[in-house]
Amino acid sequence: MLTRIDHIGIACHDLDATVEFYRTTYGFEVFHTEVNEEQGVREAMLKINETSDGGASYLQLLEPVREDSTVAKWLAKNGEGVHHIAFGTADVDGDAAAIRDKGVRVLYEEPRRGSMGSRITFLHPKDCHGVLTELVTSAPVESDEH
Amino acid sequence: MLTRIDHIGIACHDLDATVEFYRTTYGFEVFHTEVNEEQGVREAMLKINETSDGGASYLQLLEPVREDSTVAKWLAKNGEGVHHIAFGTADVDGDAAAIRDKGVRVLYEEPRRGSMGSRITFLHPKDCHGVLTELVTSAPVESDEH
Questions:
Q1: Is residue B67 flagged as an active site residue?
Q2: B122 close contact with A: CB closer than 8 A
Q3: Contact B61, B46 (CB under 8 A)
Q4: pLDDT, tens digit, 9 for 90 and up, residues A95-133
Q5: If you ran DSSP here, which 8-state letter would residue A26 be given?
Q6: Can you tell me the distance from the alpha carbon of A139 to that of A111, in angstroms, rounded to the nearest whole number?
Q7: A21 contact B CB<8A
Q8: Contact A89, A98 (CB under 8 A)
Q9: CB contact under 8 A, B49 and A53
């Protein structure tokens, strides 16, 4: 069962400049940064609020680290903006299987590694009214900035 | 101070079909529906979780009700997908003024009426790394479906 908006993924050309925009404009601070080599991105997680299921909602700022990453191709086509949305669940495997059974294309055969040790998969945007949709099961997390 | 992800605004061609997709695929139920004549949209709010500031996070599904609405023009250019993101605050007037002072274009001189009696304004996406960004102060709300 999907129990929260886990994050909004935002693609940008310059992660440091975008982090600085969110910090100076809204006061949002970086909770965690990492490079996901498989996804081809450098990312910053900004924690916005905690959620009633015991999790939290983040902005995930994404900068491509190689030209052939999906985010680099997306940026070249669309420019900066919202790249995907993600719902949190305690059971990404079960939910992905149930959603696949309803005829929605799930992009990974098995969930892969996401931010902060989470396990993630994506649903095809053409099956989701144009929205690239991620499902996330979080690992226990602690900010690397605190 | 912005204290939550209030909602993700998603533009669609057919509100009823999109509501049905979110219900059958994820189990998300409609919390509230309304027509906003000023914005030129018919909308459905799907409540996803409650938030640590005493508010909630929603998906806001938006269907244009006239050809000259900004959402109709956006759909004609972009197709269905994420139209904007919204942050919740207790003081949309004060936050909008502070953000305007930082050089970000605020689209309304004064906040206008948003979903469920809220007061809202928007920030220019070109000043926000491509993200059309809304600020929301909620009114006390009760679902019209409960």
A1: no
A2: no
A3: yes
A4: 999 999 999 999 999 999 999 999 999 999 999 999 999
A5: H
A6: 13
A7: yes
A8: no
A9: yes
Cα–Cα dist A75/A82, whole Å = 10
A65 touches chain B (CB under 8 A): no
Q: What is the pLDDT of residues A64-97, one digit of tens each?
A: 999 999 999 999 999 999 999 999 999 999 999 9
* Catalytic residue, candidates B32, B39, B43, B63: B43
Residue B100: strand, helix, or coil: helix
| B98 close contact with A: CB closer than 8 A | no
The length of chain A in residues reads: 146
Single-letter code of the amino acid located at A69? S
Binning pLDDT at 50, 70 and 90, where does residue B142 land?
A: low
Q: Do A125 and B48 touch (CB under 8 A)?
A: no
Domains and CATH numbers, chain A: 2-137 (3.10.180.10)
Say what the pLDDT of residue A140 is. 78
Percentage of chain B with pLDDT > 70? 96
Q: Is A140 helix (H, G, I), strand (E, B) or coil?
A: coil
User: Tokens 């059971």, residue?
Assistant: A91
